[in-house]
């Protein structure tokens, strides 16, 4: 499964109980951004900035959120969030495998 194919069930699973209009839109419209050594996607929902990237068979998800459901960005500025993502070091070789949960199947 490609990363783009994986994004659709991931998005459906993670936004199943999100208020209409606050799900970040279709994954094909998400902005490409550098995340560590790879290119991922980022989107803004009503109370969060989120980013996801597939790298060497694993998916990494980064969320920056607050507890409100407003359409304003009352959190860390997006520029700082994007800089943090760019400077990440993705290390799948040190990841710890756990038993599968009720999330989308196989990572990209």
Account of the protein in words:
The chain is an alpha+beta fold and 108 residues long. It has one domain (3-91). The protein contains 2 helices and 4 strands; from the N terminus they run αββββα. It has helices spanning 3-14, 78-86, and strands spanning 31-35, 38-45, 48-55, 58-65. It has a 4-stranded antiparallel sheet with strand order 1-2-3-4, with helices on one face. It is globular. The N and C termini lie close together (6 Å).
Relevant terms:
alpha+beta; 108 residues; 4 strands; 2 helices; 19% helix; four-stranded antiparallel β-sheet; 27% strand
Chain-wise SSE layout:
Layout: H1 3-14, E1 31-35, E2 38-45, E3 48-55, E4 58-65, H2 78-86
Antiparallel strand pairs: 1-2, 2-3, 3-4
Order of helices and strands: HEEEEH
- Helix fraction bin: 10-25%
Shape: globular
Order of strands in the sheet with most strands: 1-2-3-4
Summed up, the domain count is 1
Biggest pleated sheet: 4 strands, antiparallel
- The residue-averaged pLDDT reads 82
Give a quick rundown of the structure:
With 108 residues, the chain is α+β, with helices and mostly antiparallel strands. Helix content is 19%, strand content 27%. The chain has helices spanning 3-14, 78-86, and strands at 31-35, 38-45, 48-55, 58-65.
